[in-house]
Amino acid sequence: MEEPSLYTVKAVFILDNDGNRLLSKYYDPELYPSMKEQKNFEKNVFNKTHKADHEIAFLEGMTIVYKSSIDLFFYVVGSAQENELMLMAVLNCLFESLSQMLRKNVEKRTLLDNMDGVFLVVDEIIDGGVILESDPQQVIEKVNYRVRDLIEEQISLCNELTVFVSCI
After folding, report:
1. Residue 149 pLDDT greater than 90, yes or no
2. Assigned domain for 6 exists
């Protein structure tokens, strides 16, 4: 029996309806250390899940929870001993946060157009495999706060450049 750990999530990835990677984050460097191994794992997961009506799969000693939306597949991966409800909470938070951020238009084109925000959402939910947040409302508030900070920083930089250029 493994010791309990905060490092619940081994990987998160989003694939399109052809099984191509749109986003992936692996939190356990020993799990699939190379890009080739990661893509093989993702292809195996996709082949097992893309036609199934279930929400949970067990593959290669991993517990995988997943959800599909239009032309996207969302996956959260944990160890074989991991609590499926915890993984499902992460998956639901990810999906609901993206749904709010993308204004209920969770499909490939919109996701690709907003990829910077998608990475922010994932980073607000999981850090290094540790679940930080499972409330989509909190995630969206934090992401909006971070985006506002970045915009204010860029405006400040532009103002400084404007002053600099007008002084020359």
Report:
1. no
2. no
